[in-house]
Amino acid sequence: MTDERLRQLSEKALETLLVDASPEAGERLKAGLEHLAAELFLEWLTGERRFESQTQQSEYWLSRFYEEMFPDEQPDGTVIYERFGLPLPRANYIARLLRTRRAAQWRTAARKELVAALAANRAGAEAAKEDGAGIEEIDISLSAGAADELRVQLDRYSATVAPDERPRPPKAKPSLGTTRWFAVPAETLLALLGFLQKGERP
Q1: Cα gap 161→26, rounded to integer Å
Q2: Which of 18, 125, 172, 202 is the most buried (most CB within 10 A)?
Q3: β-pair type (137-142, 171-173)
Q4: pLDDT tens, 19-51?
Q5: What is the distance between the alpha carbons of residues 73 and 18, in angstroms, rounded to a whole number?
Q6: With left for phi above 0 and alpha for psi between -120 and 50, is residue 177 left, alpha or beta?
Q7: Cα 139 from chain centroid (whole Å)
Q8: pLDDT at residue 199 greater than cutoff 80
Q9: How far apart are the C-alpha atoms of 36 and 66, rounded to whole Å?
Q10: What residue spans of 85-201 are helical by DSSP H?
């Protein structure tokens, strides 16, 4: 009965944790979920890790999941809400804490997401530029962390060119939840993508 109960709980946990997870994260979850869950509980049971509040405990446990199971992601409130069943306001709050306290790790994931979003729209931006419509705006969606990275990287790129060559900035569009929508001029998209990809090359 105990083994059957553990199997049922493991299957239920995997079902929710696999929401929007990458194939690599899915493999890590299937291989290591029970070990991580046991370690977190035993840390609490032995007094090795005790917390002053439920938020502290949730932040630590979630940070371990993101570090070991979802290292290719940045914390996102909506995803935490869906995977871990936390109230959305608390999920958003903890996501902000995790991104702030582990900025270097999450920024790497945010930059990768930004490059992928820009690259996915390269063909449309190139076609607009060839038609002489470089100011035509391309809609892209980003997580909160990647949206911050968009602003930072645009400022970095703008600092490398003459004032009269600086790209037109993207326009923030109305958004719901933690997803951020931007209308990015085609020429700006191509310039920023080239800048970021150049920085990724050894």
Answers
A1: 43
A2: 125
A3: unpaired
A4: 888 889 999 999 999 999 999 999 999 999 888
A5: 13
A6: left
A7: 19
A8: no
A9: 12
A10: 88-101, 103-120, 122-130, 144-158, 186-200
* Single-letter code of the amino acid located at 77: G
Which SS3 state, helix, strand or coil, does residue 34 take? helix
Q: Which two tokens stand for residue 131?
A: 């038609």
Find the mean pLDDT for residues 57-63. 92
d(CA 9, CA 12): 5
Strand partners, 137: 185
Q: Distance (Å, rounded) from C-alpha 112 to C-alpha 158?
A: 20
Beta-carbon contacts of 148 under 8 Å, excluding residues fewer than 6 positions away, are: 110
| 141 to 76, 104, 153, 195, 198: CA distances (angstroms) | 14, 22, 16, 20, 22
Token pair of 8, please? 């049922």
The enclosing H or E element of 184 equals strand 180-185
Whether 117 shows a pLDDT value over 90: the answer reads yes
Q: Select from 78, 49, 53, 52 the least CA-distant residue to 64.
A: 49
In three-state secondary structure terms, 85 is coil
